Amino acid sequence: MSTKRFAALGVIAVVGAATAGCGGPTGETAAETKQPAASSAAGYPVTLENCGVKQTFTKAPGRVVVMNGASVAEVSTLLALGLEDRIVVNQQSYGMSEVPGRADAIKALPKGDIKLNDAFDIPREAMLGQRPDLVLSTTAYGFDAKNGFATRDQLKDVGANTYISPQGCDQDTSRMTIEDSRALLRDMGKIFGVSDRAERLIAESDKRIAEVVEKVKDEKKPNVLVLFSNMTMGGNDFSSVVAKGIYNDILAKAGGTNAFESASKTSFADLSKEKVAAADVDALVVISYNDPDPTAYAKKLLKEFPQWSAAKNDAYVVLSDSIYLGPSNDVAVEKIAKTLHPDAL
Q1: Is residue 171's pLDDT more than 90?
Q2: Arithmetic mean of pLDDT, 147-168
Q3: Could you read off the pLDDT of 186-197 as tens digits, one per residue?
Q4: 84, 188 contact by CB (below 8 A)
Q5: How far apart are CA 290 and CA 18, in angstroms?
């Protein structure tokens, strides 16, 4: 979801879990999207090149391990494709979701009774002991031996393919767009033999996004502050402010612009309270990462900066998984657009 693994950096200032949030147009639960298992013969072998490594699948994987990586993109994509029965270990969770039922579906997945390492992820021996045939990692970090993880070669030696999500090869997601969410869905569709399902999800999402873009295309683009709820990532008061990445693509399609896009060359800006206070902020997008009450954080910010247009108009929206890499970016586009342009939608 970000350029760095928040868990590995030890910078998360939030604890606890929240219940699932309100639903959006792509509110399919795992049960609703459940499909028969893909044939182990039809359409195989499938070969993909992933971060310079060629992977060949002779059948659909049946023992999938999903690494943490401070992400839910991978597990949410598998759930959206109806593949939850293939997951033997999942370490991903945000504690909440805009898609009804998703947070509970993720919570119900097996965790493998694994003692996690200092990065809150699966160490080498525990990984090899799971006998996976596919391991999913958000970035290359998850296969780095010096971080205590099983490497791609070590996993290949025990019969497991590996996959690093889009823009994760160099661990820099500042270039990420909605197209990367489509790529993740397509790749999982090919690997598991459910490409038709992946393409249908992509088409439905693209249709909803296009409808929003059409409705807001002539509207003025408000300046939006996007930041993580109750999270510290640097030395300043506001060190989790979004500068670049998929968030900006979502904002643009919702008819907005990032107030701090130029504040950093990387995905996140580390800003002083004074710089944030001086900005012209028309609306606030608060992203929850396992924060039990992100709405309270949003209201606290609006009270702290009454000079913002966002504070005067009570213009804010709280999101979690829909604004990251994953299958539900259309939900974020719609929710943000309704906050920025309520009359147009």
Answers
A1: no
A2: 97
A3: 999 999 999 999
A4: no
A5: 7
